[in-house]
Amino acid sequence: MTAAIDFTPSTELRADLRAWRTRALIIGIIGAILCAVGFFQSPTQFYRSYLWPYLFVVGMAAGSLAWLMLQYLTGGSWGVVIRRPCEAAVRTFPLVILMFLPILIGMPNLYDWTHPNLVAADEVLRHKSIFLNTRFFLIRSGIYLFGWFFLGRYMNRWSAREDAEGGTIPNSKMGRLAGPGLVFWGFAVTFVSIDWVMSLSPHWQFSTMYGLLFIAGFALGSLALQITVLVFLSRRAPMAGVLTPRHMHDLGKLMLALVMVWTYFSFSQFLIIWAGNLPKEISWYMERLNYGWEYVALALIVGHFALPFGLLLSRDLKRNFKLLASIAVFVLLMRFVDLYWFVIPDATKAGFHPSWMDLATPLGLVGLWLAYFFHQLEQRPLMPLHDPQLEEALEHGR
After folding, report:
1. How far is residue 156's CA from residue 177's CA, in Å, rounded to a whole number?
2. 298, 303, 306, 310: CA torsion to nearest 10
3. DSSP-derived 3-state class of residue 234
4. Residues of the chain by 3-state class (helix, strand, coil), percent to 5
């Protein structure tokens, strides 16, 4: 049966993908030009405004890698339908690595611990200098980014061989790497959150939930992206006859679960720190619950939890392509708000005073990333041709 289906993007779908790629590229170029203007106007503000949308882009690529490995590890037809969009997102890692260069250049503008005179005068910074120093930071960042890149390259290479040759060897090889790869992925995301975000405020002691928040956020954001892409693909052949409400229902349930997981981690961190009355840890929340930031926190409670949670409880909504895509897009917007709330108070040490560059940098980064993503998406058939679970995934939707 599957042999009769041509999963190559149709002419109409290719035209749609290229149209969206062109739009994303235009937005990205406009955003990049505005970023260049902002850099010359205020380099410090530029780097502050650059970090949080960069984390969003990293989350889309790295989160998609996690879903890819999880599907190889656990199986299930739910993962077959998102495999090709995930692979396309993972193939954007060369661009993601290139986008890290402004962070590399702007480290002195972002991180106090990069200044030897400040470290020498501060006992806490001296104590943490074994870990928080420029050389070790760069080594760790290289391990995260290139580790994800090589995992994604391995998965994509064997996936291409599976399409060309068939058989069980490619799938089994990807499955054997998926377990250790997920372990590496979890540690990498945890240390990314510590190195790139928590160290913005190096006097803040620790949080046992901090890395888990980023793990849940990366997973939720990337899944919302995949749902949005699948709904877009479902409008044209070949996916119009493949994707069904049952597939979307499965993915909608996963998104609901991750909304609850993110909320659990967020509330657990708040409860542990606040109820424990830990002065150095409470300071992190005091910056985010005062001076205008309390309204952003309220928006997260309503928009990142209450609204999607309430809506995704509906079975009918999860089976409705347009409504589910609308919730997914809204979740992606709230991921921006969440990362902004994490990064900017520590980066600025001031109240809620958004800069116009807080809009320009997401336009530039996300626009360019989406343009590259759409380019990658049309390079391969939209379903894995010889995946052992392909037939099951197609039957599951009927």
Report:
1. 12
2. 160
3. coil
4. 80, 0, 20
User: Could you report the per-residue pLDDT of 28-47, keeping only the tens digit for each?
Assistant: 999 999 999 999 999 999 99
Angle between helices 293-300 and 321-348 (to 10 degrees): 150
3-state secondary structure of 5: coil
User: Are the C-beta atoms of residues 196 and 103 closer than 8 Å to each other?
Assistant: yes
Structure tokens at 58: 């990293």
- Give, in order, the Cα–Cα distances in Å from 227 to each of 24, 66, 211, 324, 365: 18, 15, 24, 8, 21
Rg (CA), the chain: 21
Q: CA of 303: how far to CAs of 72, 224, 344, in Å?
A: 32, 14, 19
pLDDT recorded at residue 207: 83
The pLDDT mean for the chain works out to 93
Query: What confidence score (pLDDT) does residue 75 get?
Result: 81
Nearest to 20 by CA among 322, 235, 331, 179: 235
Put residue 167 in one of left, alpha, beta given phi > 0 → left and psi -120 to 50 → alpha. Answer: left
Using one digit for the tens of pLDDT, what is the confidence trace for 236-283?
A: 989 998 999 999 999 999 999 999 999 999 999 999 888 888 777 788
Lowest mean pLDDT, pick from 158-162, 189-193, 217-221, 394-398? 394-398
Closest alpha carbon to 148 in 184, 175, 178, 180: 184
Long-range contacts, 78-82 (Cβ 8 Å, 24+) = 78/247, 78/250, 78/251, 78/254, 80/383, 80/384, 80/387, 80/389, 80/390, 80/392, 80/393, 81/230, 81/242, 81/243, 81/247, 81/251, 81/383, 81/393, 82/226, 82/230, 82/251
